[in-house]
Specification:
Number of strands: 17
Distance between the termini: 10 Å
Bound molecules: 3-phosphoglyceric acid
Number of domains: 2
CATH superfamily of the largest domain: Phosphoglycerate kinase, N-terminal domain
Strand order of the largest sheet: 5-6-4-1-7-8
Helix content: 25-40%
CATH architecture of the largest domain: 3-Layer(aba) Sandwich
Structural class: alpha/beta
Strand content: 15-25%
Shape: elongated
CATH class of the largest domain: Alpha Beta
Number of helices: 14
Length: about 400
């Protein structure tokens, strides 16, 4: 980005890919962290006189426009935070986008409608993606440039992330660079003890990162829905809790090989249904009653996890420990987040959900060394996978 600013951007149209995929309740943004994280790059370009065209996605629409996935609320919020109007184009690269872009003055910012409304964005066919990339590039016209700043999507080989970087002079944005710098400290030589807390619903989503992290960490604390597959692997009955039967054997193997590192819950909060007004109880992990489901780690486990975190010099946390959106199942996630906030360790929160949990639960963000905007992207980075949206930038980033 510095290189582009040094070249001079005044009067040029610059396409910025941001990750503005925020959680919504209807049309209300429940956590605007990603919008705020996208601001510095957009602002620095606009202040330098660029005509900024922001491309972003929201949710996973199936290649056609759907009102509930419109970026309207995001355009409004971006405008509020920037202190200037952000015009939302009614389409991605069509007539409306062209009209909005043509109307941009130096320093103005426009947002294209959800790029995933165009089926070419996520197409597996390279030519289709390349065609959308050319359409996006055409919006910038003469002197156009592309800034890749959506760290949360750099693991996606999609038209507005990957292919467009081959259609325009491409630069890494400040957010992408900052995220990579922080995460590289975890893959380099983290200070020990290095403790990782993983949660979230599925083992299948996290298996690759678990396998990549185990040789590097001192402790791997497992909470969230995926803990039940590990409890099942220990031979416990998990009632109606989330269970990935196909992964029980893998979990058993991991537990056997890394008994000194993996910590699973010793108690859980169970409910008779998946609802905030469910009947609840706290039981030992090996005593989950039939018909009940575990929706949070219990207080003893939370205390244990907090003690491990307190002893750590480096902490990475991805994935809530329970269904924190419902008050009766928020204590575990809150306890873990609080322990990380209280610790002096170098601490990184990765993931849309855990980052949102920090803010929704009202914990001060400055108590964490870094709150990543990337969920899948930060995990793939820690796995050591190549991130297509970074690799495509000249010389990487
Ligand atoms: C995220 O929420 O992790 C990013 O915005 C990427 O979204 P995706 O998983 O739908 O590609």
């Amino acid at each position: 980005l510095e290189d582009l600013l040094a070249e001079g951007v005044s009067g040029r149209r610059v396409l910025v890919r941001s990750d503005l995929n925020v959680p919504l309740d209807g049309s209300t943004i429940t956590d605007d962290g990603r919008v705020r994280a996208a601001l510095p790059t957009i602002r620095s370009l606009a202040e330098a006189g660029a005509r900024v065209i922001v491309a972003a996605h929201l949710g996973r629409p199936k290649g056609t426009p759907e009102a509930k996935y419109s970026l309207r609320p995001v355009a409004d919020r971006l405008g509020e935070l920037l202190g200037k109007e952000v015009r939302l184009a009614g389409d991605v690269v069509g007539e409306q986008a062209r009209a909005v872009v043509a109307g941009l003055a130096d320093g103005d910012v426009a947002l294209l409608e959800n790029v995933r409304f165009d089926p070419r964005e996520t197409s597996k066919v390279e030519d289709e993606r390349a065609e959308l990339a050319r359409d996006l590039a055409a919006l910038t016209g003469e002197g156009g440039a592309f800034v890749s700043d959506g760290f949360g999507v750099v693991h996606r080989k999609q038209a507005s992330v990957y292919d467009v970087a081959r259609a325009l002079p491409a630069y890494a944005g400040g957010l992408v660079l900052a995220e990579l710098e922080v995460l590289s400290k975890l893959t380099g030589a983290p200070q020990r003890p290095y403790v990782v807390v993983l949660g979230g619903s599925k083992v299948s989503d996290k298996l690759a990162v678990i396998e990549a992290l185990l040789p590097k960490v001192d402790r791997l604390l497992i909470g969230g829905g995926m803990a039940f597959t590990f409890l099942a692997a220990q031979g416990h009955s998990v009632g109606s809790s989330l269970l990935e039967q196909d992964y029980v054997e893998t979990a058993r193997k991991l537990l056997a090989e890394h008994a000194d590192k993996i910590v699973v819950p010793s108690d859980v909060v169970v409910a008779d249904k998946f609802a905030a007004d469910a009947a609840t109880d706290t039981v030992a992990a090996e005593k989950i009653p039939d018909g009940w489901m575990g929706l949070d780690i219990g207080p003893r486990t939370t205390e244990h996890f907090a003690a491990e975190v307190a002893a750590a010099k480096t902490v990475f946390w991805n994935g809530p420990a329970g269904v924190f959106e419902m008050a009766p199942f928020a204590a575990g996630t809150k306890g873990v987040a609080q322990a990380i906030a209280d610790s002096e360790a170098f601490s990184v929160v990765g993931g849309g959900d855990s980052a949102a949990a920090v803010r929704v639960l009202g914990l001060p963000e400055e108590k964490f060394s870094h709150i990543s905007t990337g969920g899948g992207a930060s995990l793939e980075y820690l796995e050591g996978k190549e991130l297509p949206g970074v690799a495509v930038l000249e010389g990487g980033a």
